[in-house]
Each structure stands twice: as C-alpha cells, then as structure tokens.
Write a structure and sequence with these properties.
Cytidine Deaminase, domain 2, 4 helices, binds tetrahydrodeoxyuridine, 5 strands, five-stranded mixed sheet, alpha+beta
C-alpha cells in the first residue's frame, strides 16, 4: 500500500500555482499529481486571450505525466487561491477519469482549508471506454 505524503504534494501544488498564467480570470490554480512511480507531476492553468484555449491546471499536470511515460496514479492535489477549496471542472474530471481510478483521492486546498474526495465521487456514473463496446450485454451468438 502506497502511503501518500500529502504535505509534499500540497507544497508542490501550491508552488506551481505561483506560475499560473491567469491575467484574465486572476484565478490561479496549481495541481500536483503523484504517479505510482513515486514521481510528482505539476501543472498550472495557462490562459489565452482566446479564452476557450485556456488549459486547466489538472489537465496540464496529467498531460505532463503521460508525456513522461506515466500511466498509473495515486493522488492529486488541486490548490486554488479562492476563499474555499475549489473542485475541478467537469472537463478535467472526465480527463482524469481516463487514467486515474475512481478510488484515487483528490485533495482540494485553499490556503489552510482542505477537503478530500475520491475521483469516483467527483465524477459518478462516468462515461468510460466500456460504453464503446457495442456488443456489451448482448447475448452471445
Ligand atoms: N481552472 C483550472 O485550472 N482548473 C479547474 O478545474 C477549474 C478552472 C482555471 C481555468 C481558468 O484559467 C481559471 O481557472 C478560471 O476558470
């Protein structure tokens, strides 16, 4: 059983949040994702004047990890600067669910305020690859 060092992960998320490029929303987000390898991957939000091109911190972190060859993940911290811990957007929940299991803990932090959830609680009844199998549930021929 891998024990999560939450303080290390929170620190990493808080540090990368300082690098967020958020001149439009002024809402800075940092994410730190712990892979099964033990490595931590970080991402911040990067906004664009064409607003829809903005990338969220969580997807940024996951994509960094995948690019480094990681496929299995243990825990995620999302640090925001709002008054309350902020849950990930729906798009990020769906992207995380592609490679992170429903049992993966997701900690949300806003300064000293914390809340912790499982990914499966954040995205119940998710669309996953099992639904692409059109023969699923069909009687064997
Ligand atoms: N943002 C994230 O980075 N992650 C989320 O899950 C929610 C939103 C960013 C995108 C944008 O730069 C700013 O927060 C305001 O929406």
């Amino acid at each position: 059983m891998n024990k999560i060092d939450w303080s290390e992960l929170i620190q990493a998320a808080e540090n990368v949040r300082q690098n967020a490029y958020a001149p439009y929303s002024r809402f800075t987000v940092g994410a730190a994702l712990k892979a099964k390898s033990g490595r931590i991957y970080v991402g911040c939000n990067v906004e664009n004047v064409s607003f829809g091109l903005t990338i969220c911190a969580e997807r940024n972190a996951l994509f960094q990890a995948v690019a480094a060859g990681e496929r299995e993940f243990l825990a995620l911290v999302i640090a925001t600067d709002g008054p309350e811990p902020t849950p990930p957007c729906g798009a990020c929940r769906q992207v995380l669910a592609e490679l992170c299991g429903p049992e993966m803990p997701v900690a949300l932090t806003a300064g000293p305020k914390r809340s912790i959830h499982l990914l499966g609680e954040l995205l119940p009844l998710s669309f996953d690859k099992s639904f692409l199998d059109k023969d699923k549930g069909a009687a064997a021929k």
